[in-house]
Design brief:
It is built from 22 helices and 32 strands. It is α/β, with parallel strands linked by helices. Strand 25 and strand 26 form a beta hairpin. The longest helix is centred in the C-terminal third of the chain and has 27 residues. The model has no long low-confidence stretch (mean pLDDT 94).
């Protein structure tokens, strides 16, 4: 049969994942000649042979791809024959627009671990072992095509043995860009709190393990940045870490040696175990077991632990010592981004870390651990970062290139390109210059990887957010988008749904076009626009942000609105000086109106004897949820719904009165919580049914940070499902503000279509 030659293009995550070596071996197995090369578009192949061989080759390209590859589109066309004589792996080409994808950082693979624990292997206990199927990618690449000179590994020349592996098409490390070994790769060092070197290599590791066992705080440089590590069973060490870091109460993540130990400290569902052992290796929020053996200070008063397994070779080494469970919290001071450079860590973590276990492989971009939770039958994102970013989210259609720059809290940025959305890793809260620097760096990384200028930059409606101010400084058209509209659009886009939906958007804060603080919204619309169909009553927030930190202030204000001057005498009031706060509310001084569902949770928590002041975001609401014991009450508090100014209002005052009466009757906080949650579920379900009656809406979107409350999420999904609604929730992105940048971008793309 005559030979034919095809030009084949492959898009997707096909660089840095062993795809070219895979193509090379596949071509040899099928008896083809030609070549394969990385390009800015992905992977380019020219293959020559009999037609049947080429057809089988195309099928295998998708079906037998390497573990980390995500094959997108495969296109091919016949071209003129050439006399190659063999199939070769060519150097990358760098001209033209960029459209290829970069793999996230993933956990060390089983093949590497087998070598890692084999005493006769030349990489025995080498902390930087990796291959084409595992290890760092996103945090070391500076630009594409993904070749070693374009990564932070460019400073390490491969030794002869590593080079042979790299050049051997039959080897697992064939063209593995981070390939290295103890003779030619990065090395560990241990330095003092002042930055002076104490030890190197194995000696550094041994000394760090000894110090951890003695209760010291060790800053450990990992893949995406530094962790602060202490023995999770040592109460004094954990408490000292909290004091030094300024993190008094928020739960700390724990890394345990293996799945056996994970089962000892948490009650794990099958989905949670699968997620813990997945290549992404996120932190999984799982139910604590009685007698878990860890210090109570790890997650005080919390019924869950943030649990993860080792994902870098160094982690396995640290947990081979006497300490089998380590607190591994982000290497930063509270509210700051994680440190990535050695000198930076010594400066910024001064007074926190007792010593630093560092290495000399550069980190180009900081990337926190991802956090997930099992809710409503699925693993859902709480913080999408390492292991997941920058995997694209597929969209239902293509369009203009648009950049969304996110919100102020839990910031991410998102680029729409063709039919894909590229969301950055979790950046954090843009309230300090360090976080703003990472925000700018992440935008720079998108520009470097895709070499693009967006047609539009979309930002939050709030004019003072740093992300909004950055957008307006660029020489690109901009669009301001309301916060909760972005939530609605993000969930629709993630679920690839077109058409109008009812969005129940519940969170703490969002700037409304009426200059009030929104946060308990029912919007009717899609990415093209929205109307405010319903909302929680807007009540005064005395002191603004000061009330966010002191829920008792919000409780007092809401009681005043519900009862006027005849306030019920509730026990929580005795602990506070109520007069000045009531005066502020009565006179309307520094008391902006808010429909925030987050503030409603705060008020109910404080009124019912819960948290009066908070030390981390949503602490009062989380603790209130926990008291419910994982179930709703059948005796829901009555929550009235009424119409005002052509929209429905959900009566906060009726709920507040119901809670106050329950407190006065001596009802336990747990039962109050169960009835309160059930009252909210019933009220929002009634609003949805009214919307269906008026507007013929059958689809409901649930978004906003309040839906991280598993009791409310599962209650709403169940209630709405029982009355016949299609319910859409987030799967690939968090329901909190981590999804805002996607919503902004898809709204911007629709705006460009309108002209």
């Amino acid at each position: 049969m005559p030979s034919v030659r095809w030009k084949i293009s492959v898009s997707g995550i096909v660089q840095g994942v062993g795809f070219r070596p895979f193509v090379y071996r596949l071509a040899l197995a099928h008896g083809l000649t030609g070549f394969v090369a990385n390009t800015p578009d992905g992977v380019a192949i020219e293959a020559q042979g009999q037609a049947a061989q080429l057809e089988d080759f195309l099928v295998a390209l998708r079906e037998a791809a390497p573990p980390l590859a995500q094959v997108g589109e495969i296109s091919f066309a016949p071209i003129s024959l050439r006399h190659d004589g063999e199939f070769v792996l060519r150097h990358s080409t760098a001209s033209g627009p960029v459209s290829t994808l970069i793999s996230p950082d993933v956990a060390v693979c089983e093949d590497c671990l087998a070598e890692f624990f084999t005493p006769t292997d030349r990489r025995f206990r080498y902390p930087f072992i990796n291959c084409t199927n595992c290890g760092p990618r996103y945090t070391i690449v500076q630009r594409i095509p993904y070749d070693r000179p374009h990564t932070t590994m460019r400073d390490f020349a491969m030794c002869a043995a590593c080079q042979r592996e790299y050049d051997d098409s039959a080897n697992r490390r064939f063209h593995a860009q981070p390939n290295c070994c103890p003779d030619c790769g990065p090395q560990l060092s241990l330095v003092t709190a002042e930055g002076q070197q104490l030890a190197e290599r194995d000696e550094a590791l041994g000394e760090a393990i000894r110090r951890l066992a003695e209760g010291e705080i060790v800053a450990v440089k990992g893949i995406g940045g530094f962790h602060l590590a202490v023995d999770a069973a040592n109460s004094h060490a954990v408490q000292r870490l909290r004091q030094r870091k300024g993190r008094e109460a928020k739960p700390l993540a724990v890394m345990v040696a293996d799945l056996v130990m994970a089962r000892q400290v948490c009650r794990l569902e099958a989905l949670e175990e699968q997620t813990l052992t997945s290549q992404e290796r996120p932190i999984v929020l799982a139910a604590k077991k009685e007698g878990h053996g860890l210090a109570e200070e790890v997650a005080p008063g919390y019924d869950q632990l943030g649990l993860m397994l080792p994902y870098a070779p160094l982690h396995y080494l640290l947990l081979q010592g006497p300490v089998r469970a380590l607190v591994m919290t982000s290497g930063n001071r509270s509210e700051e981004p994680i440190c990535i450079e050695n000198d930076e860590a010594v400066q910024r973590l001064a007074g926190i870390a007792d010593c630093y276990l560092v290495h000399d492989r550069g980190i180009h971009l900081p990337c926190d651990d991802s956090v997930v939770a099992l809710q409503a039958g699925m693993i859902r994102q709480v913080r999408r970062s390492r292991g997941f970013a920058p995997k694209p989210i597929g969209l239902g259609e293509t369009g203009a290139m648009v950049l969304g720059v996110g919100a102020e809290l839990k910031n991410t940025v998102c680029l729409l390109k063709d039919n894909q959305a590229f969301c950055s890793q979790h950046i954090g809260d843009l309230k300090n210059l360090e976080a703003y620097r990472v925000f700018q760096q992440s935008l720079g990384q998108l520009a470097a990887l895709f070499e693009i200028t967006p047609a539009l930059i979309v930002h939050d409606l709030h004019p003072q957010y740093l992300s909004s101010r950055w957008a307006k400084e660029q020489k690109v058209p901009t669009l301001a988008v309301q916060h909760h509209h972005a939530h609605l659009a993000a969930c629709l886009a993630e679920n690839r749904q077109k058409g109008q939906a009812l969005g129940i958007i519940l969170d703490g804060t969002g700037y409304g076009p009426d200059q009030t603080i929104w946060g308990g919204e029912v919007l009717l619309g899609d990415a093209c626009g929205y109307q405010r169909f319903a909302a929680l009553e807007a009540l005064p927030l005395p002191g603004g942000d000061a009330a966010v930190q002191a829920p008792w202030r919000t409780a007092l204000s809401y009681l005043h609105t519900a009862y006027g001057a005849n306030l019920p005498d509730l026990p929580f009031m005795a602990a506070h000086e109520c007069g000045p706060i009531l005066a502020m509310v009565e006179k309307g001084v520094n008391s902006p109106l808010t429909s925030s569902c987050g503030r409603l949770f705060d008020a109910v928590a404080a009124m019912s004897g819960g948290r009066q002041t908070i030390q981390y975001e949503a602490q009062a609401a989380i603790e209130l949820m926990q008291t419910a014991g994982g179930r709703l009450s059948e005796a829901a508090f009555l929550c009235e719904v009424y119409e005002e100014n052509a929209m429905l209002k959900i009566s906060v005052r009726s709920l507040i009165r119901a809670v106050a009466q329950a407190v006065q009757s001596g009802m336990a906080q747990g039962e109050i919580s169960r009835r309160f949650h059930a009252g909210l579920v019933a009220a929002f379900t009634r609003v949805a049914e009214e919307a269906r009656s008026r507007e013929k809406i059958k689809t409901v979107v649930l978004s906003g940070g309040i839906f991280q409350n598993r009791l409310l999420l599962e209650g709403m999904v169940g209630s709405l499902g029982r009355v016949g609604f299609q319910v859409l929730v987030h799967k690939e992105l968090p329901c909190n503000d981590g999804c805002i940048s996607l919503g902004q971008a898809v709204i911007g793309r629709e705006a460009l279509k309108k002209g």
